[in-house]
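Review form for a predicted model. The reviewer records the input and the model, then writes brief findings.
Reviewer: anonymous (R2)
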Amino acid sequence: MAQQTVASPASLALIEKLVGFDTTSRESNLELIDFVKGYLQDLGVESLLVFDTEKRKANLYATLGPQDRPGIMLSGHTDVVPVDGQVWTTDPFTVRRDAGKLFGRGTSDMKSFIAVVLAFAPEIIARKLDTPIHLAFSYDEEIGCVGVRRLVDLLRNMPVKPAMCIVGEPTEMKVVIAHKGKKSYRAHVRGVESHSSLAPNAVNAVEYAAEAVAYLKGMARRIAAKGPFDDDFDIRHTTVHTGVMKGGTALNIVPKECSFDFEFRHLPADDPDTLFAELKSYIAETLEPEMQAIDASTGFSFEELSWIPSLDAREDEDVVTFVKSIAERNDHGKVAFGTEAGLFSKHAGIPTVICGPGSISQAHRPDEFIAQEQVVLCETFMKRLIDRLDSKVA
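Model under review:
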């Protein structure tokens, strides 16, 4: 029998519906959340909404099955990255089907997973599973796993919380047991401005910022050459990256201010705080004495922008062996991109792995897409999961 390559009508309809909501992180996700809440309500399932402080966004948590048992949590984020500046062939918020692919913002990352889970909700309820399936859909993952932290706080204090979690980020339905952590910062450099002809009497904030960025680049080269390494990761070492730099107003004015944003994406065994402390020591011992010899008010300050803990599940953990059996895979992987899995694992105490349809290489780009074959694999995974949890199945 030929393998099915076309997703079910239910999954396709829900993918199209969810992609149709513009849930770019700067926008509200409540229209999508209200749709999901109503969809589940029609099935007799009540949802708990955990809002942000402004009540513009919400996490959704719902239980399909018994409320008093741990069960399996399926997790996904509802927000997507912007399309600004990207050249799309068609409307990014209308799914286009072409050559076995579904094009649209969020098809890969990660509304297709949420859609498939919702498509199977009627069957989960009809089967009256002894082991519940919990749904956790979050907001603002794309800007640092911000929204889910409120849900994590709630889960941590629940009298009965999920026994394990599967985060459906795009892994091509491979089982991922670890991801890197991330810490990002913004450095503010205070200089002293003057006419550029008097540059030696001023403190050039841009130039001192550039020296700090160059030091970060040197750290990156050293780590890439000397490690530590973990060959299971696609990028096998911690990375150091500067992504934004702003400063100066005119060429003939020595700039008074400059800022730059940088990040450490670190292996689970590596410590980003140690790397940050190294940078600050270099600045305090080398750059600031030069700056403050001219003016004592000059120097550097820092603010933390985001922090995502790493995920580092053991190969022999129950969640790993369980999800491998459902995915019918003996292998596992580790990825460089961050997810909410580390928060569920480390801060809610819920053992977690990552396994979802689509490829991260297709995410965040113009004409983002997911192959329908990937949606079918996810549907097959859900069928096996339901069968495994059904006590009536031998």
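Findings: The mean pLDDT is 95.
Further findings: The chain has ten helices and 16 strands.
Recommendation: see findings above.
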